[in-house]
Amino acid sequence: MVDIDGVISLFGTQQPGARTPSPHRAPAADPGAVEGSLQSIDGTPHFLSATAARQLLALSRVFDLVWASGWEEKANEHLPRLLGLPTSLPYIAFSQRTPLSGRTTHAHWKLESIAAYVGERPLAWIDDAFNPACHEWAHARRAPTLLVSTLPARGLTQAEARELLRWAARLQAPR
User: Fold this and answer.
1) Neighbour count for residue 145 (Cβ, 10 Å)
2) Across-strand partners of 38?
3) Between the chain's N and C termini, which has fewer beta carbons within 10 Å?
4) DSSP assignment of 99-132, as one string?
5) Domain limits at 103?
């Protein structure tokens, strides 16, 4: 599960290291640098992280990526074209989901829809806004679950991608 705001679309990126790269420039030597570009999406400015896009492309070789964002289908309308991401990734339609039990927990606005979508499959979820209910839910799941938190000004970086790849390797390791 991949959130967008705070993971790919960053907030507060005016810190040193945030820059708009030329399309042909190699990634920055500073592993903490955030590369990307300011884009207007439906009239709203977004700083889209090319750094996060590179990490997602690498992760897509190991994970089945699913958009878990209020952007819903808008992610596929804009992000593949602007960041070179895979086209037509599945997404969760939060507005169309009903709570698992017919009632809501009010724990986290995404939690019930994500639970319904993933079922008993292993899950890695990248987001910048986990709350205690997310961690309790992840801990209580019987299927392997990893919550990867990002800083909204940095988004998905090589450090989080490495954490995800190590987790996936442990799941695939013979027991």
Assistant:
1) 19
2) 47
3) C
4) -TTSS---S-TTHHHHHHHHTTS-EEEEES---H
5) 9-172
